[in-house]
Design a protein that fits this description.
Chain A is built from 11 helices and 14 strands. With 391 residues, the first copy, chain A, is an alpha/beta fold. Chains A, B: It catalyses: L-homoserine + acetyl-CoA = O-acetyl-L-homoserine + CoA.
């Protein structure tokens, strides 16, 4: 267990608190290669070997009670905080505003872990990985994993890292689905669960957006039924899928504030700023994401239903034993507050202790990735209470 | 001027009132072929000849004061009411619930006209029409027309039909944009304007959805820069464009009511009912719509801004002289009620008389095409008042 940061940088980061950086970090991997006991998925498929990419920040305390697992969203990765290269202008990890000395996930107190999910394309085994049975990428044949399978792989990682129980599991969007699944699936291993901008299941509208995004990929001739070469992926389709997705991550008001109708004349062929922004987002995405991975992960999200096989949402939460913090955002129309409220009612009926806050913001679904609201304080307070109870 | 219905059927329809059918109708065309005075567009381009497809229902009264122009939406056509073939199971025109004897647009009182818009692909000159200069379809070279140009072609049609002034112009969505433009552009020719589920300009979010839909077409290899053969269009891209659009025409609640999460298992590759519904809508669309037409019309909608070149929205409405009825729908997130409210405030500041109603419904943007709410009564009452004032 290391902080991931070099001693010099870690010391420097600590000196910057409150709100400092974890400094320079690197992504590590753990590989589970046990042919006799392969990793089994809910669908019955088996995977061996399985590699997990992860980063850690802070130090595991002697009693091992200060671990916080961060679950990233669809397009995230294990690099949640700090810097990989430490060069000027480098963008920090995707949740750097939340993780670091003096930040809500205070690395002076907590040992923070973030791993790329099962089925990902940023170091963890997924559709772009080589299938040892064929010597070629799994591609479309990668098994139809579930959010529960992702949790099981995270649990294996924690076993390997020697962490019997999490102080908290925390995630936004798909990461929030994992946090909820953790709470219900492994009640003895979770003291607190934080579900941000998420839901116990997708709405049919969200499924519809996923499907049109997938169709953008399938209709790209470069898709080749998912059997494209890594160097020649269905770029146009994947970029369009991301453009569609990106609309749903913002709100109407956020778009009005960000773009208004700038850039469009009264004649010509468009050229509105909002169009250029989406094209930019689409192009950026194809450089770091894989099309088969996108198809699989959106389907896993579509199928996720915390209540399925457990009787009801209330019955599901009866299995849990942790405290919950649920945060929704008023302008998030992809994971609307109403679904969080339904979930919170079920938690309460199940006898769970839950804090719920709907944060009023124009930022839409992406709000959990952005500064400018109370989420950080809510998470910090929730963790502080769990930590004081644990020690 | 004819009713469009045969005397026998018209008589039969009258007997069915209230709420009867206009009976059997057919789409007619008028062609303007005056090489010396071609149809001029705002962008400076000229078109000759120009054909307009239209239908009429009811009878023009001797004083010619009972004409109501219906403006259709993006995917509509001139066939607004009644039946073309009169065979069992045939679907009536797209606004049959509103037009007919005893219906809100009561064909016993009003002479109703509906024409396919300039740039359309259902009989009126548009990108799929033959450019006489080349002998081939205009395709991507069709001029970048405006909502104002569409109004001018409708005005030519009314001239040809001998209608100096409309009792009312009425439309939903893009048709509502035309109705607003009519009121501001030709104040002497309009006694009343009805704007349903529309806006004086699109939001950046709506523009964003249009752009991803266009990109679905552009990224289909069958697009060929818009120079596809009519028999070999970019079907996959156009279908996907429609699937994207269709999500925006419904509301989240409408989708929950209509589909919930039915059809999806906890494993497998999806197959949710909402996905099948979208695929069905996509397939249907390609049989009746043209890709170049879609690209052009969505761009015309994107560029539409009633205030542009007129100082402000208020200044624009100072040019108008008619009464207005504005109706928005609470769950319409493509043309949100807030934009209607902004428009109504501008109308009032400009001294216009306006009735405004936000109808509470889960039906989303498509509500103006559907029964089950008060819109019909509001329109009927508005027309009745205009009619009594006129006679």
């Amino acid at each position: 267990m290391t902080t991931g940061a070099s001693p010099r940088l870690a010391a420097a980061a600590t000196a910057v608190a409150p709100g400092g950086s974890v400094g320079r970090v690197r992504t590590r991997t753990e590989t589970f290669d046990t042919p006799a006991a392969p990793f089994r998925l809910e669908c019955g498929a088996r995977l061996n070997p399985v590699t997990v990419a992860y980063e850690t920040y802070g130090r595991l305390a002697p009693g091992r009670r200060n671990a916080v697992l961060v679950c990233h969203a669809l397009s995230g990765d294990a690099h949640a905080a700090g810097f990989h290269r430490g060069v000027p202008g480098e963008r920090p990890g995707w949740w750097d505003l939340m993780i670091g000395p003096g930040k809500p996930l205070d690395t002076r107190r907590y040992f923070v872990i973030c791993s790329n999910f099962l089925g990902g394309c940023a170091g963890t085994t997924g559709p772009a990985s080589i299938d040892p049975a064929t010597g070629r990428p799994y591609g479309p044949d990668f098994p139809a994993y579930t959010i529960g399978d992702q949790v099981e792989l995270q649990a294996r990682l924690l076993d390997r890292l020697g962490i019997p129980r999490l102080l908290a599991v925390i995630g936004g969007s798909m990461g929030g689905m994992q946090a909820l699944e953790w709470a219900v699936r492994h009640p003895a291993r979770v003291a607190g669960a934080v579900a941000l901008a998420t839901a116990p299941r997708l709405s049919p509208q969200a499924i519809a957006f996923h499907e049109v995004a997938r169709q953008a990929i399938f209709r790209d001739p470069g898709w080749r039924g998912g059997r494209y070469e890594a160097a020649d992926p269905p770029r146009a389709g994947l970029a369009l899928a991301r453009m569609i997705g990106h609309i749903t991550y913002l709100s109407e008001e956020a778009m009005v504030r960000k773009f208004a109708r700038r850039g469009g004349g009264t004649a010509g062929t468009g050229g509105f700023e909002v169009e250029r922004y989406l094209h930019h987002q689409g192009r950026r995405f194809v450089d770091r994401f894989d099309a088969n991975t996108f198809v699989h992960i959106t389907r896993a999200m579509d199928r996720f239903d915390l209540a399925a096989g457990r009787g009801s949402l209330e019955a599901a939460f009866r299995r849990a034993a942790c405290r919950f913090l649920v945060v929704s955002f008023s302008s998030d129309w992809l994971f609307p507050a109403a679904l969080s409220e339904e979930m919170v009612r079920a938690m309460r009926l199940a006898g769970r202790e839950v804090s719920y806050c709907e944060i009023r913001t124009h930022q839409g679904h992406d709000a959990f990735l952005l500064p400018g609201h109370r989420m950080g304080d809510l998470v910090a307070g929730f963790l502080d209470r769990l930590d004081r109870e644990a020690t």
